[in-house]
Amino acid sequence: MITALILGIGLGIGLWAVAVWVFPPRPALGVVLGRLSAPPAPAPIVAAEDAGWAACIGRPFIGLLRAFGLPGDRLSRDLAVIGRPVAAHLAEKAALAIAGLLAPVLLQLLLMLADVSLGVEFPVIAGLMLAVVGFVLPDLQARSDVAKARTGFRHALSAYLDLVWITLAGGAGVDSALNDSVAVGRGWAFEQIRRALDTARLTRTTPWASLRQLGEELAVTELAELAASVSLAGTEGAKVRASLAAKAAALRTHQITDAEGDAIAATERMSLPVMLLFLGFLAFIAYPALTQVLNGL
């Protein structure tokens, strides 16, 4: 009964997915007119990476997943941070879900060649569970990569603030301090800042506008605050050396606090295996006594 119910649910979801793929829903007229009248968005500063083999396999299912409203706005911003195309992400989700769905079936076929059968329920239930895991796994991996990228960017930004402050103290202008300081650093974070400054120079816009756009794309508020401070110095001639030094110190203090919190959390996680081992030892000691008591009754 459970197997028939699961098969019926899977068949219904499959038929509905095929219907959505054949007849995709049309957007409302207001949405279409809003897209036509909206001003063109600036070109993204963060570059996108190439797709892998999983994205190539799941490419036919991109339109179907987009019809379901995937991915959300937050996940789309996270994918932009790590420079991963949305289409490649959706294709990988579809490919891993299909692989998880077919893996137990292939295992069942191999076992049947050896005259061993696991029944019908095992490949169905295991296939659905693995399909769900494969569908969710790229989202979890993307969020983990984004968290690491933002943490590394904040570390590099604190060093960049110090370099800008030192260059301003040496008598350089705002534009020179920004460009000379970013030329010293290496790594992904400095590359993004360098690309933002190059974009501002090529498009003849202010560097703080490009830095603000980069901060919005990466969801790093500290970079947006840096752009606001630099804009005051560039437009109104305000002295921002003390402000930049204070921001760098505050950013380092925040990083130290986060590192201490991560260390405490790791220590607590390390105590969990010891606790499980202690509970297993207690069960190992108490089992013979409990068996004797039950047999005596």
Helix content: over 70%
Low-confidence runs: none
SSE pattern: HHHHHHHHHHHH
Averaged pLDDT, please? 78
Largest sheet properties:
none
What is the end-to-end distance? 40 Å
**How many E strands?**
0
Gross morphology: flat
In percent terms, what proportion of residues is strand? under 5%
Short description:
The chain has twelve helices and no strands. It is mostly helical and 297 residues long.
Features:
12 helices, 80% helix, flat, mainly alpha, 0% strand, 297 residues
Ordered list of secondary-structure elements with their pairings:
Elements: H1 2-22, H2 29-37, H3 53-57, H4 62-67, H5 73-81, H6 86-113, H7 121-169, H8 174-184, H9 188-203, H10 207-218, H11 221-236, H12 241-296
Helix pairs in contact: 5-7, 6-7, 7-8, 7-12, 8-9, 9-10, 10-11
Q: What do these coordinates show?
A:
The protein is mainly alpha-helical. It has a domain at 151-254. Helices cover 80% and strands 0% of the residues. The chain has 12 helices and no strands. Helix 7 (121-169) packs across helix 8 (174-184) and helix 8 packs antiparallel against helix 9 (188-203). The longest helix has 56 residues, at 241-296. It is flat and about 85 Å long. The mean pLDDT is 78.
